[in-house]
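Hey, quick one: can you model this chain's 3D structure?
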Amino acid sequence: MDFSKEATRRSAKAGDITLNYYEAGPDGGSSVGGGLPFVLLHGGGPGASAWSNFGTALPRFAARFRTLLVDQPGFGQSDKPEVGANYFRHSASYLLKAPRRACRSSGSTCWATPSAAVRR
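Sure thing. Here's the predicted structure for all 120 residues.
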């Protein structure tokens, strides 16, 4: 399987913005985590993006799990909307509008459902 940046890059509309993400792994997911995808969200800072933080790890995770590396709003190749409030709430609101399930943690990786992510 080709795990290159170009081969795994996708995009999805989330409300009024487009989110960039990278996807690889079994289509049906995994029995671990109830079949939910393994979602990795990068932190902030200059040059932060899903690929720069996790690109080299994608083949290892995708060997067993459907894996999504998401460029958060304002980073990487995702749209860069105006932020009018707390960035993390702002980002989570867009991620939860995405057509795929996503989760957020104060670190970089998590196993969660969207409803658990909202409680954080």
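One thing worth noting: The chain has a mean pLDDT of 77.
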